[in-house]
Design goal:
The complex is a heterodimer of chains A (96) and B (333).
Chain A (H helix, E strand, L loop, with lengths): L1 H18 L25 H12 L10 H4 L3 H13 L10
Chain B lengths: L8 E7 L4 E7 L6 H19 L1 E4 L6 H12 L15 E3 L2 E3 L9 E4 L7 E12 L3 E2 L4 E3 H7 L2 H10 L1 E7 L8 H5 L4 H10 L2 E7 L2 E8 L2 E3 L6 E3 L13 H10 L7 E5 L7 H14 E2 L8 E5 L3 E5 L2 E2 L3 E11 L8
Parallel strand pairs in B: 2-3
Antiparallel strand pairs in B: 1-2, 3-17, 4-5, 5-20, 6-18, 7-17, 7-20, 8-19, 9-16, 9-18, 10-12, 10-15, 11-12, 13-14
Helix pairs in contact in B: 1-2, 3-8
The chains are: A mainly alpha (96), B alpha+beta (333).
């Protein structure tokens, strides 16, 4: 799962960085900050949320997320998804 | 035009029908903009009251510092960008990037900070570097916008004004209260809100909901003409591009949206009305290509501005001056 998700995330980040005229640093890796560095514009996080929802197959409640820690790097997003798949509890809300 | 004769200039309109903007170009190169502005300010202000926008093209402006100094010499009251609704970076002194909004998204026409209690009556744009493609700053005469809105749509706005509701919750989708009010001190933020006729309600340690009730129309202080002067369209969720709108409404309850607008009595504004308002702005809009060194001067009470999507780097900076408060304006219908 994580290799596939990682590939999707890298493609997403590349495409958004390109469209917002930002350059991905040479030393960018899976722990590099996405949000706090400004690499990923905040408005794109909605699209990222859709991508993650697709991955975990359930709706997210974004109002209880701390994005700047939980989604701030490729690795933190992969960890987040792992937790959600293994524990579909408090971070999820029922489809309305 | 009765400009002082020390510097010869040509004048024309980008759009002859809409008479906007008036373009002033020196007949000879190398003329510092300040040398033209200072002796002609009275005449330029008279033209600004008639047309709403003047584009200075071909004058010498040596970067953002010189831009600030030029504008600051003519308009002493340059403004800080407070009570923010968009991400801006400070370039120099009181010169800011026009906006840091993602380049592939359009910014709809609006009058700078008209949701605030006090807002600039003059706004200046300086093009350091045009975008590779598009990235224009469309402008529209809001006297014409007013005329182009069906009276039945205008009426509830004219009677009740506009209610702006914001959720400053931090996180990625909106602003933090610290960003909007440019302070880390809650007491200072609360004092600002009280002075700015803004209601606030703390919903959590760092989550605050604000409500601002403002008029939707005003009379121009010089000409007395009626103006469609509000942010009802730009800040409404239905004004977002469809994809963004769908995502916002999927992930947020309406009450929790980072920004939304309502009629002044709190009633919802329909998508159809927002689409009509967008059409009115678009039909009055004038779009022109930026050239390096261009300076655009707008009467923010007469002319709205926006931004087209763009690619490549684009550096257009902004300075704001001569604040006016809603209390000073005639908002009778």
């Amino acid at each position: 799962m994580s290799d596939q998700l990682r590939t999707k995330l890298v493609e997403f980040i590349n495409s958004k960085a390109k469209s917002s005229g930002k350059t991905i640093p040479d030393n960018f890796d899976d722990d590099s900050p996405l949000i706090t560095s400004g690499l990923l514009e905040s408005l794109y996080l909605l699209e990222l949320a859709l991508l993650i929802e697709e991955e975990i197959g359930t709706s997210l409640d974004l109002t209880i997320l701390d994005f700047t820690t939980e989604w701030n790097s490729i690795n933190s997003i992969i960890d987040y998804v792992r937790v959600q798949i293994g524990d579909s509890g408090s971070k999820f809300r029922a489809e309305s | 035009m009765g400009f002082a004769e020390n510097i010869e200039v040509d004048t024309e309109f980008i759009d002859e029908d809409k008479k906007l903007p008036l373009v002033v170009t020196p007949k000879h190169s190398g003329v510092p903009l300040i040398d033209f502005l200072m002796p002609n300010l009275k005449e330029l202000e008279a033209n600004l009251s008639s047309y709403g926008g003047i584009l200075f093209r071909g004058f010498q402006v040596d970067g953002p510092e010189d831009f600030e100094s030029t504008i600051g010499s003519c308009y002493r009251d340059l403004l800080n960008y407070n009570d923010r609704s968009t991400h801006r970076s400070q370039v120099h002194g009181k010169v800011y990037t026009a906006t840091d909004y993602p380049p592939e998204l359009e910014i709809l026409l609006h009058n700078e900070s008209s949701y605030a209690a006090r807002f600039p009556s003059r706004i200046f744009f300086y093009c350091v570097e045009p975008a590779e493609t598009s990235g224009e700053t469309p402008i529209a005469d809001i006297r014409k916008v007013y005329e182009r809105i069906d009276p039945s749509i205008r009426k509830p706005f004219e009677e009740n004004g506009v209610l702006y509701v914001r959720n400053l919750a931090g996180g990625p989708f909106g602003f933090t209260w610290q960003e909007v009010y440019q302070t880390q001190d809650k007491n200072e933020m609360e004092r600002f809100c009280e002075q700015a006729d803004t209601q606030y309600e703390w919903l959590g340690e760092n989550k605050v909901r604000t409500r601002q009730s403002r008029p939707a129309v005003a009379k121009h202080p010089v000409t007395g003409e009626t103006l469609w002067l509000n942010h009802a369209t730009l800040l409404n969720v239905f004004a977002l591009e469809q994809k963004m709108q769908d995502m916002m409404l999927k992930f947020f309850k309406v009450d929790d949206l980072p920004n939304n607008t309502y009629y002044g009595d709190g009633a919802s504004i329909s998508k159809e009305v927002i689409n009509e308002l967008k059409r009115a702005y678009e039909s009055a809009a004038v779009v022109f290509k930026w050239e390096p060194g261009d300076v655009l001067m707008l009467d923010n009470l007469l002319v709205a501005h926006g931004r087209k999507p763009f690619s490549g780097s684009r550096k257009v900076v902004v300075a704001m001056a001569n604040p006016v408060s809603w209390q000073e304006l005639d908002t009778s219908v």
